[in-house]
Write a sequence for this structure.
């Protein structure tokens, strides 16, 4: 997992930002969207965001 990788190019959201949201208690795509705004423009990244969330939740 590359934490500097941009998962949502529309908003420049990185894996690190998704990890921070999960560390702050977000467990669902919706909660991560609320924290980071990731995936709220074109939606093309939603599956990738979900994969990142799953990865960080398992840790
Ligand atoms: S790439 Fe994430 S909303 Fe467009």
């Amino acid at each position: 997992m590359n934490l500097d990788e941009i998962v949502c190019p529309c908003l420049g959201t990185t894996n690190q930002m998704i990890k921070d949201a999960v560390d702050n208690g977000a467990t669902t795509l919706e909660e991560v969207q609320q924290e980071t705004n990731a995936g709220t423009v074109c939606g093309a990244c939603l599956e990738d965001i979900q994969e990142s969330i799953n990865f960080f939740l398992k840790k």
Q: What stands out?
A: The domain at 6-58 is CATH 1.10.10.1100 (Arc Repressor Mutant, subunit A).
